[in-house]
């Protein structure tokens, strides 16, 4: 076996794909254009760099679909999940990591494999020969994007991801803020106090919304459209949908008690989550934004406790390009018009670090199996992996296709269980039990 697997893009999906294929015995060349060619959002040339949140979201593998996806990736010796566990930070029931050591570790692990090499050059065309995986993510370069457009004959679909700001912990006024996870969730005291909370009265909330709506925003270039993904809306877009929208989203005041005023129920609460192991940086949870930098500082300093905040990074916005995968990809994630090319990660129309890495895991194993002459059975639809890949390669409606997080709405129903909120706990446990059995069975063919 001398054929090389080329993987373009060293983010979550590309790194995971390289790890999986290399551990199946395939020689891999990982092409990453950074740091030679920079992007708007990346800070380093490390593989697996986290550019938005530092959280992989819920780690509950019995009641949460993304937690189930964590479990499936760990079961498959996933690089991203294993390394996340090594650099975990307290975050209640979520899996958050110290982002810089995490990326450094991903880079070191891949470079330590004897059958993996990294090429720091930009790939701008879709090759006619060889086995390739394109996992270039939301910041696919313009030249490569144009090549994909030429090949698919379809206009690239675009929406905008906004990056939440990061605050220096020492600049937060703890006489107004306090540490607590919602409903004191977590196994340890550290987990139960993983979030920093800033309370607002009704008057403060109303003034904040007014300032948010009036702030200067980043303008879109001609020909761009703001087709936002609902799971990652900029806060000002949420505010434009209704003055109470944020109170029912990232600023909801539930499950929290202010120790500075235990009898006063906050009208709204802004939460911050630790962004590094030292606890010197906190990101404002759910506060993706397209406000201009000067406006951001002014608006965010209206939040009680952040009046004197200093920002390690302000928010930003960037274009995110993805394929209309239901029309373009087969069930093996291959481009129908060029079967030597697979796509993986966020460019396929999944949303989030975990989902992107999961599609990289599948693409890496599928490509390696093809090179090795192995026939794989179809990924079971009842697994979280299978639910996602089924959605993007045919389960979704092509005309209205939008990026999707993993969720139990993508799973086939389990017969005989109650619907609605009352039966949800039993239903979710049944989904996860069924998924674990299906996924474990699929993995046996690699033994």
TrEMBL record:
<comment type="similarity">
    <text>Belongs to the MnmG family. TrmFO subfamily.</text>
</comment>
<dbReference type="GO" id="GO:0050660">
    <property type="term" value="F:flavin adenine dinucleotide binding"/>
</dbReference>
<dbReference type="InterPro" id="IPR036188">
    <property type="entry name" value="FAD/NAD-bd_sf"/>
</dbReference>
<dbReference type="InterPro" id="IPR002218">
    <property type="entry name" value="MnmG-rel"/>
</dbReference>
<keyword id="KW-0489">Methyltransferase</keyword>
<keyword id="KW-0808">Transferase</keyword>
<dbReference type="GO" id="GO:0005829">
    <property type="term" value="C:cytosol"/>
</dbReference>
<keyword id="KW-0520">NAD</keyword>
<keyword id="KW-0963">Cytoplasm</keyword>
<keyword id="KW-0285">Flavoprotein</keyword>
<keyword id="KW-0521">NADP</keyword>
<dbReference type="GO" id="GO:0047151">
    <property type="term" value="F:tRNA (uracil(54)-C5)-methyltransferase activity, 5,10-methylenetetrahydrofolate-dependent"/>
</dbReference>
<comment type="function">
    <text>Catalyzes the folate-dependent formation of 5-methyl-uridine at position 54 (M-5-U54) in all tRNAs.</text>
</comment>
<dbReference type="GO" id="GO:0030488">
    <property type="term" value="P:tRNA methylation"/>
</dbReference>
<dbReference type="InterPro" id="IPR040131">
    <property type="entry name" value="MnmG_N"/>
</dbReference>
<dbReference type="InterPro" id="IPR004417">
    <property type="entry name" value="TrmFO"/>
</dbReference>
<feature type="domain" description="MnmG N-terminal">
    <location>
        <begin position="6"/>
        <end position="374"/>
    </location>
</feature>
<feature type="binding site">
    <location>
        <begin position="9"/>
        <end position="14"/>
    </location>
    <ligand>
        <name>FAD</name>
    </ligand>
</feature>
<keyword id="KW-0274">FAD</keyword>
<dbReference type="GO" id="GO:0002098">
    <property type="term" value="P:tRNA wobble uridine modification"/>
</dbReference>
<comment type="function">
    <text>NAD-binding protein involved in the addition of a carboxymethylaminomethyl (cmnm) group at the wobble position (U34) of certain tRNAs, forming tRNA-cmnm(5)s(2)U34.</text>
</comment>
<dbReference type="Pfam" id="PF01134">
    <property type="entry name" value="GIDA"/>
</dbReference>
<keyword id="KW-0819">tRNA processing</keyword>
<dbReference type="InterPro" id="IPR020595">
    <property type="entry name" value="MnmG-rel_CS"/>
</dbReference>
<protein>
    <recommendedName>
        <fullName>Methylenetetrahydrofolate--tRNA-(uracil-5-)-methyltransferase TrmFO</fullName>
        <ecNumber>2.1.1.74</ecNumber>
    </recommendedName>
</protein>
